[in-house]
Specification:
Layout (H helix, E strand, L loop, with lengths): L1 E7 L12 H9 L10 E8 L7 H14 L6 E4 L1 H9 L6 H12 L3 E3 L5
Parallel strand pairs: 1-2, 1-3, 3-4
One iron/sulfur cluster binds next to strand 1, helix 1 and helix 3.
Length: about 120
């Protein structure tokens, strides 16, 4: 079971990509970047901290709260919304760098992307 935190683009989530239906569907059906897990549980979703991308402090808060609430997070995904913001808009986040920083700080795998719809 992968207990997953999805980090999302604060400018896209629930505005252009409504209700996070796509990621919930992909997780349920184990499609896209969820395809290789035995089973998937989305434990938490959070915004990136908004532009210019304060991801580290935001995820820090999420991890602290998850610990307080005794919720395991063993994998972090940077949502497809973040990938789209990076490729098609002026998002300043260096996704590969953030991936390395998160993985090194929290000792968990970090995957870039979620659904492929
Ligand atoms: S890519 Fe996923 S996490 Fe991001 S807004 Fe869309 S459904 Fe939500
Ligand atoms: S920093 Fe990037 S991912 Fe975050 S809200 Fe801005 S455009 Fe979206």
């Amino acid at each position: 079971m992968a207990n997953i935190l999805i980090v999302t683009c604060a400018k896209i989530r629930d505005i252009n990509c409504v209700a996070c239906l796509k990621c919930f569907k992909a997780a349920d059906l184990k499609e896209g970047e969820f395809a290789n897990y035995d089973s998937v549980k989305i434990v938490a979703m959070c915004g990136c901290g908004d532009c210019p991308g304060l991801v580290m402090p935001k995820v820090g808060l999420v991890m602290e709260m998850a610990d307080y609430l005794e919720r395991d997070i063993d994998t972090i995904h940077l949502g497809t919304c973040m990938v789209k913001a990076n490729k098609t808009a002026a998002c300043s986040i260096d996704l590969d760098k953030v991936k390395e920083m998160l993985s090194s700080k929290y000792g968990v795998p970090v995957v870039v992307g979620t659904h492929n719809y």
